[in-house]
Every structure is written in C-alpha cells, then in structure tokens.
Amino acid sequence: MKINPYQPDQTGMAYSVGTTLDRFIKSKQSDFPFASGELSQLLRDIALAAKIVNRETNRAGLANIGGAFGQTNVQGEEQQKLDVIANIRFIRALSKGGEVCAIVSEEEDAVIDLHNTSGKYVVAIDPLDGSSNIDVNISIGTIFSIYRRITPAGSPIQMEDVMQPGSKQVAAGYVLYGSSTMLVYTTGFGVNGFTYESSLGEFFLSHPNIQAPKDGNIYSINEGSELEWNKGVQDYIRLCKEKGYSARYIGSLVADFHRNLLKGGIYIYPPTQKNPNGKLRLLYEANALALLAEQAGAIATDGKQNILSIQPESLHQRTPLIIGSEKMVQTAMEYFAEEK
C-alpha cells in the first residue's frame, strides 16, 4: 500500500512532519525590532548543541559516559560525566555563534567571559538537569535563559549584564531528553514546543501555543523531606491528599515541570531546615521556567514574591520555587500566608 506522507493513515496517525524549528524561528524574527537575526541564530545554536547532547545521552550506556565524573561542581554536587560533556557542548556552540558575550553555567564557578565585545546576549544555562538519573534511564533536561546585555556593545562585559532579574529575559526554554526529545521555548510571545525527529535531524513544531490548565490534580514535591517543611507546606500537601490528587515526582526538574505544564499541576521545592533558601538556582533554573509558566498562563513564586521580580545577588543564588497551574498555586499561597 502506498502511503501519502501528508495524510493520516487508517489508524488516524498523521505522517506529515510540519514546521521545522528553523523555519518557525525565521517566521518570528519580526517580533524583535531591536534584533538583526542574532537572537534567532542564538536559538539555533542552542538547538544544535541539544542535538549533540541528545546523541550523547542516547549512547551513554554503550560509550561508558554514564556515572560520576569524580569531581564536584560549585554547588557541592557530584558531577556526572554527562554534566561535563553537556557543559562543553553548549559552551562551544554558544562561543562559536558570535552572538553571546558571556555565559553563566551551573558547572562553572564564575562567569565565562567570551571576550566577544560585540556580542549582544548573555546566556545562563543548566547544561544537564537531573543528570544523576541517566544511569536509571529517567528523563533529564537542559534549561536556558537569554538576556540582552545592558552595557554598550564594544565594551567589556560587566556584572550588571549578568545579574538581571528574570523579567529582563528576552527568551527562555528547556530541552527534555526522554522517550522523545523536545525543545520548548518562549520569546515573550507564547510558548511553543518542538519534537526532535532523529532520522531527519530536525526539530518540528509539535506543541504550538502551549497553555497550562488553570487547575490540576497533580502535585510534585520530594515527600522524603516532609519533616523539614514548615507547617504551611505540610498543611497544603495534606489538602492535596484529602482531595485525592496524584503525587508525581521524578526528581528531574524539567520532566516534572513539563508534565505539569501540559496536564495541570503544581511543583513545589520549598525551603527546608537543611536548605532554608531553597535548593534550585535562580539565574539558570527558576527564572527560565517562571517565564515559560507565565507565558503559558501559569504562576511562579518563591512563596513571597513573583520569581521574575527577584533581583539576583550572586551567580549561584538559590530560591524556593512554587510553580504551576494558577488555581493550585493560589491555593498553596493561601496556606503559606496563613502560617505567616
């Protein structure tokens, strides 16, 4: 039987591959009157690095690149071999593109000054979030934020170019490496998701204009830390259980966020006795996901204020994170407010 590649077959499955990421980015260039194609190229650079990391992730078990690297990063966390590989891949891609003047990475102690004084953008990135899950074949991800530099092009970068609140992001997104690899990003004009077709080597638009459900019945939190939560968090989780909500916690931030973004739910990483300031990093984890959440109609807060309004004070600053469906986050905040 001859298959028409542009029509569904008898099972209802469509064979048409649709719009590529590259074509989609080009079609949206007019949204940025201040840009001359650099931001579009920067997003392509990130997509290229993601393809390479996807390849390395898929062959990790065969190439002996799973497991620990034997060193710790600036966070005091044990680096995995793929952490190091992903960090190198993204830094190389961002360095060679010419659009970036500086990079902040979870795996690097200090700002990476690329000495590209003509670069207009600063990128903050977690090259491989949840990498300890690789050895057990659980989804992992990359998270990135893009900022437009403040100081004039042609001059050396300054810390003010790097230490910007999340509200100043010009783009943000993540790559999810799972049963399929997806790149989800926003430039402040909605959220769109692209699925990687490995046989063609392209990302194709698969989730246009993602809108988070206003409510949900999934809560994601590490219940192993329950005894370290404050009373407001304990009371809210008890409410979730009384309502019969489903507990879903993967331990990979990107995977947990992605599921809740599509299906409706709330992700909570609260302050604990061990980590009173929370554990997630503001610049290259919380800010990116907060912008995506707000563009999709969800909410992101640290329990006191909007994540995007926080002025960072250090490169690896940590923050609590409550993020997800609007009604669920609002209810959670009521419980946290009552405790205060």
Automatic annotation (TrEMBL):
EC identifiers of the protein: 3.1.3.11
Sites where the protein binds substrate: D129, G130, S131, S132, N222, Y249, K279
Signal peptide: none
Catalysed reactions, as listed in the record: beta-D-fructose 1,6-bisphosphate + H2O = beta-D-fructose 6-phosphate + phosphate
Keywords: Carbohydrate metabolism, Cytoplasm, Hydrolase, Magnesium, Metal-binding
InterPro entries per UniProt: FBPase_C_dom, FBPase_class-1, FBPase_N, FBPtase
Cofactor(s) in the UniProt record: Mg(2+)
Cell compartments where the protein resides: Cytoplasm
Domain annotation Fructose-1-6-bisphosphatase class 1 C-terminal: ranges: 213-335
Ranges where the Fructose-1-6-bisphosphatase class I N-terminal domain occurs: 20-208
GO cellular component annotations of the record: cytosol
Binding positions for Mg(2+) 1 per the UniProt entry: E106, D126, L128
Description of how the protein assembles with itself and partners: Homotetramer.
Family indicated by similarity: Belongs to the FBPase class 1 family.
Name of the protein described by the UniProt record: Fructose-1,6-bisphosphatase class 1
Organism: Algoriphagus zhangzhouensis
Lineage: Bacteria, Pseudomonadati, Bacteroidota, Cytophagia, Cytophagales
